[in-house]
């Protein structure tokens, strides 16, 4: 399991909304200023928090600290589907057009069409599997969390 800690911000039936703080490893990276993540950090994007719906059978309330987890297999399959499949579709469709001795403009067009078709397949697959409990984050455990005295929670 890949784990992330957070705080419960809302409770739903069989699940909770968890606010996680996005971290960055830029301080330990030698390419600090040469990548997009460093630019995003300087713009303050790393301070934004992410909301995640996590399945839970624990009795939790707003403000509780939790650790949520995602299965490695689900993450790796999702990453391959989103990143690798469109790239392979682009290259294969362009290679097929090139093997058919198409003009360069048609080879590029075939690559773009292969990418677009693969994107549609990824989109449909993600919509079909969005409610699959095997692919959803789950609350692994509750942690001790003390809310600041000046913080109020309204529902």
UniProtKB/TrEMBL annotation:
Pfam families: RseC_MucC. It comes from the Bacteria. The chain crosses the membrane at residues 80-100, 106-123. InterPro entries: RseC (IPR026268), SigmaE_reg_RseC_MucC (IPR007359). Keywords: Membrane, Transmembrane, Transmembrane helix. PANTHER family: PROTEIN RSEC. This is Positive regulator of sigma(E), RseC/MucC.
């Amino acid at each position: 399991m890949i784990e992330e800690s957070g705080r419960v911000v809302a409770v739903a039936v069989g699940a909770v909304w968890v606010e996680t703080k996005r971290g960055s490893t830029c301080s330990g990276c030698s390419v600090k200023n040469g990548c997009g993540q460093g630019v995003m950090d300087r713009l303050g994007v790393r301070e934004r928090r992410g909301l995640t719906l996590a399945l839970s059978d624990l009795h939790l309330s707003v403000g509780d600290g939790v650790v949520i987890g995602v299965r490695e297999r689900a993450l790796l399959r999702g990453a391959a589907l989103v990143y690798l499949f469109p790239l392979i579709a682009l290259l294969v469709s362009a290679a097929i057009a090139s093997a058919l001795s198409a003009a360069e403009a048609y080879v590029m067009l075939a690559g773009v069409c292969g990418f677009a078709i693969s994107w549609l397949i990824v989109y449909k697959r993600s919509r079909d599997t969005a409610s699959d409990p095997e692919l959803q984050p789950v609350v692994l455990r509750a942690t001790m969390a003390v809310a600041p005295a000046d913080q109020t929670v309204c529902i």
